[in-house]
Amino acid sequence: MTPQAQGYAGNYDMAQKEGLNQKELEIRAFINMASALNKIKENWETEKQNLSDVLDKNRLLWTVIASAMQEQDCPQPADIRKNILQLATFVFKRTLDLLGKPSPEGLNVLININMNIARGLNGNAAD
Questions:
Q1: 3-state DSSP of the chain
Q2: 39-83 residue pLDDT tens
Q3: Residue 1 resides in a domain
Q4: Residue 3 covered by a domain
Q5: Range(s) of the domain holding residue 105
C-alpha cells in the first residue's frame, strides 16, 4: 500500500472509530480539503511548495466522488449525478490550470466549491 493510500485508509479507520457515517465523512473530507487549500492561499509565500500535493489530494477526493456517481447502484438521481460529474470535470480542469499557472487567487474557486458541497451535504444530513 502506498503512503498516500495508507493515509486515506488511516483516515477511514479513524472515521469509523469516531462513529462517522458516510455523509459525515464526505463533509469532513470537503472541509479538510478546502482548509488545506485556504492555508496555502493565505500563506502563499511559505506554503506554495505544498500546492501540487494538496491539489493532488483534492483531485483524488473528486475522483472518488466522480467514480461513485458512475456506479450502477448510485442512489442519486441521474440529473444530480450528471451535475456532480460536470463539477468534477471543472475541478480537474481548474487543477490543471493552477498547476500550470499557480496563484493564490486561483484557489478561491476550488475552496468555494468544496465548502459549498460540504454545506449542501450538511443541509441534507438528516436524510
A1: CCHHHHHHHHHHHHHHHCCCCHHHHHHHHHHHHHHHHHHHHHCHHHHHHHHHHHHHHHHHHHHHHHHHHCCCCCCCCHHHHHHHHHHHHHHHHHHHHHHHCCCCHHHHHHHHHHHHHHHHHHHCCCC
A2: 999 999 999 999 999 999 999 999 999 999 999 999 999 999 999
A3: no
A4: no
A5: 8-123
